[in-house]
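<goal> How does this chain fold?
<sample>
Here is the protein in question

***
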Amino acid sequence: MEGKLYIVATPIGNLEDITKRAEKTLKEVDIILAEDTRVTQKLLNHLNLKKTVWRCDDYVTKFQFEKILTELKNGKTMALVTDAGTPNIADPGYKLISFIRKGNPNIKIIPIPGPSALTTAISFSGINANQFTFVGYPPHKKGRGQFFKLIKNIQFHPIIIFESPHRLLKTLNDLEKYYQENFHLIIVKELTKIYEEFWEGDLKSAQNYFTGKKRKGEFIIIIP
Protein backbone atom coordinates (compact mmCIF):
# COMPACT_ATOMS: atom_id res chain seq x y z
CA MET A 1 0.00 0.00 0.00
CA GLU A 2 1.30 3.45 -0.94
CA GLY A 3 2.24 5.92 1.76
CA LYS A 4 0.86 9.41 2.25
CA LEU A 5 2.30 12.88 1.78
CA TYR A 6 1.06 15.54 4.20
CA ILE A 7 1.41 19.22 3.32
CA VAL A 8 1.84 20.77 6.76
CA ALA A 9 1.53 24.46 7.62
CA THR A 10 3.90 25.54 10.41
CA PRO A 11 4.17 28.74 12.48
CA ILE A 12 5.33 31.93 10.74
CA GLY A 13 7.18 33.10 13.84
CA ASN A 14 5.59 32.26 17.17
CA LEU A 15 6.07 28.51 17.63
CA GLU A 16 2.99 28.33 19.85
CA ASP A 17 0.89 28.82 16.72
CA ILE A 18 1.44 25.19 15.70
CA THR A 19 -1.92 23.42 15.43
CA LYS A 20 -2.67 20.20 17.29
CA ARG A 21 -3.25 18.41 14.00
CA ALA A 22 0.06 19.64 12.56
CA GLU A 23 1.94 18.55 15.69
CA LYS A 24 0.26 15.13 15.62
CA THR A 25 1.13 14.71 11.93
CA LEU A 26 4.79 15.63 12.42
CA LYS A 27 4.96 13.17 15.33
CA GLU A 28 3.51 10.28 13.34
CA VAL A 29 5.17 10.55 9.91
CA ASP A 30 8.31 8.59 9.02
CA ILE A 31 10.13 11.44 7.25
CA ILE A 32 9.86 15.23 7.22
CA LEU A 33 10.75 17.08 4.01
CA ALA A 34 11.99 20.57 4.89
CA GLU A 35 12.90 23.63 2.87
CA ASP A 36 15.58 24.42 5.47
CA THR A 37 16.45 21.56 7.82
CA ARG A 38 17.94 23.93 10.41
CA VAL A 39 14.75 25.98 10.68
CA THR A 40 12.60 22.87 10.90
CA GLN A 41 14.88 21.40 13.56
CA LYS A 42 14.14 24.39 15.82
CA LEU A 43 10.43 23.59 15.54
CA LEU A 44 11.03 19.90 16.23
CA ASN A 45 13.13 20.77 19.28
CA HIS A 46 10.27 22.96 20.52
CA LEU A 47 7.92 20.00 20.13
CA ASN A 48 10.44 17.54 21.64
CA LEU A 49 10.38 15.44 18.48
CA LYS A 50 13.27 13.47 17.01
CA LYS A 51 12.58 12.79 13.36
CA THR A 52 14.35 11.98 10.12
CA VAL A 53 14.50 15.24 8.14
CA TRP A 54 15.38 15.47 4.45
CA ARG A 55 16.16 18.69 2.61
CA CYS A 56 13.54 19.60 -0.01
CA ASP A 57 14.19 23.09 -1.37
CA ASP A 58 14.46 24.83 -4.74
CA TYR A 59 17.70 22.96 -5.53
CA VAL A 60 16.49 19.41 -5.05
CA THR A 61 17.22 17.26 -8.11
CA LYS A 62 14.95 14.91 -10.01
CA PHE A 63 16.95 12.02 -8.55
CA GLN A 64 16.02 13.13 -5.03
CA PHE A 65 12.37 13.51 -6.06
CA GLU A 66 12.49 9.94 -7.38
CA LYS A 67 13.94 8.75 -4.06
CA ILE A 68 11.05 10.41 -2.22
CA LEU A 69 8.52 8.88 -4.62
CA THR A 70 10.05 5.42 -4.16
CA GLU A 71 9.78 5.70 -0.38
CA LEU A 72 6.13 6.76 -0.70
CA LYS A 73 5.42 3.82 -3.02
CA ASN A 74 6.95 1.56 -0.37
CA GLY A 75 4.48 2.79 2.23
CA LYS A 76 6.41 5.54 4.00
CA THR A 77 4.49 8.56 5.29
CA MET A 78 6.02 12.02 4.85
CA ALA A 79 5.30 15.62 5.79
CA LEU A 80 6.34 18.53 3.58
CA VAL A 81 7.02 21.79 5.45
CA THR A 82 8.36 25.15 4.40
CA ASP A 83 10.52 27.51 6.49
CA ALA A 84 7.41 29.17 7.87
CA GLY A 85 3.71 29.17 7.11
CA THR A 86 1.85 27.22 4.46
CA PRO A 87 3.89 25.32 1.84
CA ASN A 88 3.55 26.29 -1.82
CA ILE A 89 2.86 30.00 -1.22
CA ALA A 90 5.91 31.79 -2.67
CA ASP A 91 7.64 28.49 -1.98
CA PRO A 92 9.17 25.69 -4.13
CA GLY A 93 7.02 22.93 -2.62
CA TYR A 94 4.77 22.80 -5.68
CA LYS A 95 7.53 21.05 -7.65
CA LEU A 96 7.47 17.98 -5.42
CA ILE A 97 3.67 17.90 -5.27
CA SER A 98 3.43 18.05 -9.06
CA PHE A 99 6.09 15.34 -9.43
CA ILE A 100 4.29 13.00 -7.02
CA ARG A 101 0.88 13.52 -8.68
CA LYS A 102 2.33 12.73 -12.10
CA GLY A 103 4.52 9.87 -10.85
CA ASN A 104 1.82 8.04 -8.91
CA PRO A 105 -1.71 9.48 -8.71
CA ASN A 106 -2.62 6.82 -6.14
CA ILE A 107 -0.47 8.40 -3.45
CA LYS A 108 -2.73 10.42 -1.22
CA ILE A 109 -1.66 14.04 -0.66
CA ILE A 110 -3.29 15.55 2.41
CA PRO A 111 -3.23 19.26 3.36
CA ILE A 112 -2.88 20.18 7.04
CA PRO A 113 -3.95 23.86 7.12
CA GLY A 114 -2.57 26.47 9.47
CA PRO A 115 -0.64 29.77 9.62
CA SER A 116 0.06 31.87 6.53
CA ALA A 117 1.86 35.21 6.42
CA LEU A 118 -0.37 36.27 3.53
CA THR A 119 -3.69 35.86 5.29
CA THR A 120 -2.28 37.01 8.65
CA ALA A 121 -1.18 40.33 7.14
CA ILE A 122 -4.53 40.85 5.46
CA SER A 123 -6.48 39.96 8.61
CA PHE A 124 -5.38 43.05 10.56
CA SER A 125 -4.65 45.43 7.69
CA GLY A 126 -8.09 47.05 7.69
CA ILE A 127 -8.43 46.74 3.90
CA ASN A 128 -11.38 45.27 2.01
CA ALA A 129 -9.97 41.91 0.93
CA ASN A 130 -13.04 40.42 -0.72
CA GLN A 131 -10.72 40.36 -3.71
CA PHE A 132 -6.96 40.86 -3.83
CA THR A 133 -3.99 40.05 -6.06
CA PHE A 134 -0.98 38.29 -4.54
CA VAL A 135 2.13 38.73 -6.69
CA GLY A 136 4.76 37.17 -4.41
CA TYR A 137 8.38 38.33 -4.54
CA PRO A 138 9.49 40.73 -7.31
CA PRO A 139 12.17 39.29 -9.63
CA HIS A 140 15.71 40.12 -8.52
CA LYS A 141 16.87 41.39 -11.93
CA LYS A 142 15.44 39.96 -15.16
CA GLY A 143 11.78 40.85 -15.63
CA ARG A 144 11.72 43.27 -12.71
CA GLY A 145 10.60 46.25 -14.77
CA GLN A 146 7.84 44.24 -16.41
CA PHE A 147 6.70 43.02 -12.99
CA PHE A 148 6.05 46.56 -11.75
CA LYS A 149 4.43 47.62 -15.01
CA LEU A 150 1.98 44.74 -14.74
CA ILE A 151 0.96 45.41 -11.14
CA LYS A 152 0.47 49.08 -11.96
CA ASN A 153 -2.40 48.02 -14.23
CA ILE A 154 -4.18 46.21 -11.38
CA GLN A 155 -6.57 48.93 -10.23
CA PHE A 156 -9.65 47.17 -8.93
CA HIS A 157 -8.43 45.48 -5.73
CA PRO A 158 -5.47 45.43 -3.31
CA ILE A 159 -2.04 44.09 -4.29
CA ILE A 160 0.06 42.04 -1.87
CA ILE A 161 3.85 41.84 -2.34
CA PHE A 162 6.41 39.80 -0.38
CA GLU A 163 9.91 41.24 -0.01
CA SER A 164 13.16 40.40 1.77
CA PRO A 165 14.77 42.93 4.17
CA HIS A 166 17.78 43.72 1.97
CA ARG A 167 15.62 44.51 -1.09
CA LEU A 168 12.82 46.44 0.61
CA LEU A 169 14.14 49.91 -0.26
CA LYS A 170 14.88 48.86 -3.83
CA THR A 171 11.27 47.76 -4.24
CA LEU A 172 9.93 50.97 -2.69
CA ASN A 173 12.11 52.95 -5.13
CA ASP A 174 10.87 50.88 -8.06
CA LEU A 175 7.25 51.43 -7.02
CA GLU A 176 7.89 55.18 -7.08
CA LYS A 177 9.45 54.88 -10.54
CA TYR A 178 6.60 52.93 -12.11
CA TYR A 179 3.63 54.38 -10.27
CA GLN A 180 4.81 57.99 -10.69
CA GLU A 181 2.80 59.09 -7.66
CA ASN A 182 3.16 59.17 -3.88
CA PHE A 183 0.50 56.57 -3.16
CA HIS A 184 -0.71 55.02 0.08
CA LEU A 185 0.57 51.66 1.29
CA ILE A 186 0.83 49.32 4.28
CA ILE A 187 3.99 47.48 5.32
CA VAL A 188 4.10 44.75 7.95
CA LYS A 189 7.03 42.69 9.16
CA GLU A 190 7.99 39.92 11.59
CA LEU A 191 4.40 38.81 12.04
CA THR A 192 3.67 36.98 15.34
CA LYS A 193 7.21 37.72 16.61
CA ILE A 194 8.40 40.04 19.40
CA TYR A 195 9.24 42.86 16.97
CA GLU A 196 6.08 42.58 14.87
CA GLU A 197 5.40 45.91 13.20
CA PHE A 198 2.50 47.45 11.31
CA TRP A 199 3.31 50.60 9.33
CA GLU A 200 0.90 52.67 7.20
CA GLY A 201 1.41 55.85 5.21
CA ASP A 202 2.44 57.27 1.84
CA LEU A 203 5.35 56.01 -0.24
CA LYS A 204 7.72 58.90 0.51
CA SER A 205 7.15 58.47 4.24
CA ALA A 206 7.85 54.74 3.89
CA GLN A 207 11.14 55.42 2.11
CA ASN A 208 12.19 57.85 4.84
CA TYR A 209 11.06 55.59 7.67
CA PHE A 210 12.83 52.42 6.51
CA THR A 211 16.06 54.09 5.30
CA GLY A 212 18.82 53.53 7.82
CA LYS A 213 16.60 51.32 9.95
CA LYS A 214 17.80 47.85 10.93
CA ARG A 215 15.71 45.51 8.79
CA LYS A 216 15.26 41.81 9.49
CA GLY A 217 12.58 39.27 8.78
CA GLU A 218 10.30 39.15 5.77
CA PHE A 219 8.21 42.17 4.74
CA ILE A 220 4.71 42.27 3.28
CA ILE A 221 3.74 45.31 1.25
CA ILE A 222 0.04 46.00 0.71
CA ILE A 223 -1.11 48.51 -1.88
CA PRO A 224 -4.80 49.09 -0.95
Notes: The longest strand covers residues 184-189. Residues 62-73 form the longest helix (12 residues). The radius of gyration is 19 Å.
